[in-house]
TrEMBL record:
The chain crosses the membrane at residues 44-64, 131-149, 169-190, 202-224. The keyword Transmembrane helix applies. GO terms for biological process: membrane assembly; phospholipid homeostasis; plasma membrane organization; regulation of membrane lipid distribution. This is TLC domain-containing protein. PANTHER family: CT120 PROTEIN, TLC DOMAIN-CONTAINING PROTEIN 2. GO terms for cellular component: plasma membrane. Keywords: Membrane, Transmembrane, Transmembrane helix. InterPro entries: TLC-dom, TLCD. PROSITE patterns: TLC. It comes from Phrynocephalus forsythii. It is a multi-pass membrane protein.
Amino acid sequence: MELLLVVLVVGGSAAAFRLLNAALERLVPPPPSAQRNRWKWRNIWTSLAHSLLSGAGALLAFYLHPQMAHDLIDSHLPAAHHLLGISIGYFLHDFGDMMWHQKLHQCWELLFHHSVVIVCFGFAFLVHRFVGFAMVALLVEINSVFLHLRTILRMAGLAHTTSYRLTSLVNLGTYVVFRISTLAWMTRWLVLNREQIAPATYALSTVGMAVMTPMNIVLFYRLLRNDFLTSSHCQKDK
């Protein structure tokens, strides 16, 4: 029964995202500025779809089941468990998509990130525990919506528009709230609840946080530098 659930939810999700990725060539045709990188255009739109689904789903899970916020280990709705499986399916699809279309030196950071997420989420999905903790992690996807929109605008040649500037501002704001603050809160929760967590699980979670936190801080600096610090210097030079 458990194997059937994995196949249906995780496998079905990976297949659905693969089909969506293929359909996006017609649903959202790449503009002339993105013609040379059609794969990335499809990939970003697929990632945006996942972020919208998982970010909104995680918020809804806490709204419909407030008890989960007080017990991140054992309390969750079946729908939250299924959402976790769907998210795993997406990361499996995206891992394979990057491996197929990019060279290792171009995407090793994201492949490493996806590997950690798949292992951590996969553990929670299989043992039916820490689903609430995983839902907190999926709140990060709320920021990813604006992160992907930013990339889409850049690829469409709209990096100097008001829409891009506004998206960049919202992206940085949600980055602090839903990504950096969320990861800091998760790290604090792990420390405070260490006695309730098995040593192996605690070690896995700690490694996950140790990988995610510095990666996200580095990404924040890159976004700040590219969208604001560099443009500020350019304006001063002018």
